[in-house]
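To fix ideas, we reproduce below a protein record of this kind.
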Amino acid sequence: MTPFLDELVTRSTSFTKTFAPASMTTCCTATLLTGTYPFVHGIRSLSDARLPPDLPTLAELFKRNGYRTWAEVTGPLAPVTGLDRGFDEYAHRRYTETLDTPWGVELRAGLAEARAPWFGLLHLWELHNPRRVTPEYDKPKYGPNLYDRAVSSLDHELQRLFQVLPDETAVILTGDHGEFVSASRGANVVARLKGPLRWARKNVPGARTLKRLTPALTRRADQLTRGKQDLHLSWLGHGYHVYDYLVHVPLLIYAPGTFPAGLRVGELSSHVDLYPTLTLAFDLDPFDTPTQNSVDLYAVAHDPGQTLSDRAVYLEASGGRMRPRPEQWLAAIRTKRYKYVRGLFSEELPAELYDLQADPGERENIIAARPELAAELRARLAELMAVETRAAPAEEAAYTAEEQEILEERLRDLGYLE
């Protein structure tokens, strides 16, 4: 139940076919801030590289145009990633500080008193494992699983947040990636165990070993139940593939007088589109670094008859929770109807092809039946990736040993590393 968000849709332009470029937070946030795909900005997992120093960010763009810039982030978005560049204030908080806590009270108070113009990035953790559900919303009427209840709970907190914003505030609401959500009872138990296991890993002798064994245990349990419980995917949550449920994200742009109210746009869009869209929609003086493979959604919103029938967007995955191995990386291209997936760094991974119109759940790999189509999409994927190159040499984006230690400690705290 999301009464506030449902009402916000009627006041916003919603892009219903928007896709994140990856299924992990850091990669997607880098794309949101730069308008470039991971093969350009170089952040392709949780811990491989920082943002190249000469790749402009949205924060730098707004700051260049006279805005005060701030960010409130959590999770893996530590300052060492380079994503803090251009922000006057970049506050990285613990994931337990959510909108319903004292941190949320302080945030609302600050927004109510903020002097315009400002550009802010607010990164929330409520829907991530372990889900944050306030007691009022942890009831069956708010959803059959913990994820649905977390969404209902967050909807209420977002309404409280919007109530303090000045009337002229423009808001872009999106997700950094999707999440695997199972309706099975066992999967709900796994979701509820995330928080206690995280606490036990730090405080109970021997619990770290149990947590390390959990992925193997969930895989074995799925085998015993013939996959009916989805325990392993519920434990992973995201990052392991580029299925639509992991990369299809909401995108609402609420900007009265700039974006039409109640308009629903079904054309294919991507997080790479936000950089040029905001530049043009808010008449910002741009940097001399035009992005490619992106679309101005402001123009699309003001020409509803415009079609992007031949567009394709890029997707990738780095393998899930642990440090990525070459055989875990996937690259994909998605058109309005088809998705082609191959190994990014390993030719040994079997390629996949899905007809999203006939098979929206991506259950049947049709690559053997459609070799010509697979070859065409593989060529389009290679062409798309060849258009742009990394903005800075890889060695300039590498972490120092000290920075790597800081980041890995953050990832351990979040449960990504042991």
